[in-house]
Design goal:
Pfam families: TctC. This protein is α/β, with parallel strands linked by helices. The protein is built from 12 helices and 11 strands. Helix 7 packs across helix 12. The protein is globular and about 65 Å long. About 4% of the residues have low confidence.
């Protein structure tokens, strides 16, 4: 682990302690929040990230008596919104709801306008997500092993769809090709909705679909789920194995939704925001809503989020490097 990553973990641990002054010299604010919060979502309205942001933001507003304004800033694979928060005043009033792409982008793009571990303060990991590997009913495979056998029998003939170049789905698809020794044609879609539509219509031979987009259909019988990324099975699909259980290691890193502040935010502000997000995430109605989206509710401390970022960043970078994926 490099020096900067160790320092970031140490700073996150300090945030969890709730000290009165930051090591970066920003004075704490005991009356926080004294005005509205801006919650930046680096993706369009209506998507999973937006839904999570509005769910948590509404509860924050209700409890704190201050408006939480969700500000959708899509563009450049989330980097536009991320950069807005990275360069915002570190006063606790500009908050980011980020996703896994934050730590995948540095391996995919030569130039990133920020450094995740230098420019952001971790607050709380709200929920974990997974990708489902699915096939339409016309494909005869009923297990991952059977699909691999089909692909090996017809190299370069079968396709896999992803919800975009450089997404987790793309990385998982290339990883499956490497791990299984199969040749699949990658078909990138512009988002999960058209991908799911084509899976339902049988226009693509297989796909990695994020669980929030596929959740409404997982028990419909309209396609088959052969495996799930991450470390846990889907509650609605207890018979579907994880990739590790199916004999393919390396698919363990989960997707996630997490809150960040600009680096240098006062420690008591970060600690208060983190504690409130943890409390909200564990409310029965919020926890159930996240579960209904196919997510695993978490609610973590800043240091727990920092550890996830520090652990998973090199894993994603290794997949990108080994698969020779470059987007610019």
């Amino acid at each position: 682990m490099d020096k900067q990553r160790r320092q970031w973990l140490a700073q996150a641990a300090a945030l969890g302690g709730g000290a009165a002054l930051t090591s970066w010299g920003v004075r704490a604010q005991g009356d926080y929040p004294a005005r509205p919060l801006r919650l930046v979502v680096p993706y369009p309205a209506g998507g999973g990230t937006d839904t999570v942001a509005r769910l948590i933001g509404q509860k924050l507003s209700q409890n704190w008596g201050q408006p939480v304004v969700v500000d959708n800033k899509p563009g450049a694979s989330g980097m536009l919104g991320n950069d807005i928060v990275a360069k915002a005043a570190p006063d606790g009033y500009t908050v980011l709801l980020g996703i896994t792409a934050m730590i995948q982008s540095p391996g995919l793009y030569k130039k990133i306008p920020y450094n995740v571990e230098r420019d952001f303060a971790p607050v709380s990991l709200v929920a974990r997500s997974s990708d489902l590997f699915v096939v339409p009913n016309r494909v005869p495979a009923r297990t991952l092993a059977e699909f691999v056998a089909l692909a090996k029998a017809s190299p370069g003939k079968l396709s896999y769809g992803s919800y975009g170049n450089g997404t987790s789905a793309h990385l998982h698809g290339e990883q499956l090709k490497m791990r299984a020794g199969i040749d699949l044609v990658h078909i990138p879609y512009k988002g999960a909705a058209p991908l799911v539509s084509d899976v339902l219509g049988g226009q693509v031979d297989s796909a990695f679909v994020d669980v929030t987009s596929a959740n409404a259909y997982v028990t419909s019988g309209k396609f088959r789920v052969l495996a799930i990324t991450g470390t846990q099975r889907h509650k609605a699909l207890p018979a579907v194995p994880t990739f590790a259980e199916a004999g393919f290691a390396g698919f363990e890193p989960n997707g996630w939704f997490a809150f960040f502040l600009p680096a240098g935010a006062p420690r008591d502000v970060s600690s208060r925001l983190s504690a409130e997000i943890v409390r909200i995430t564990r409310l029965p109605d919020v926890s159930q809503r996240l579960a209904d989206m196919g997510l695993q509710p978490v609610g973590s401390t800043p240091e727990e989020l920092a550890a996830v970022v520090a652990t998973d960043t090199p894993k994603w970078a290794r997949i990108v490097r080994d698969a020779h994926i470059q987007l610019d």
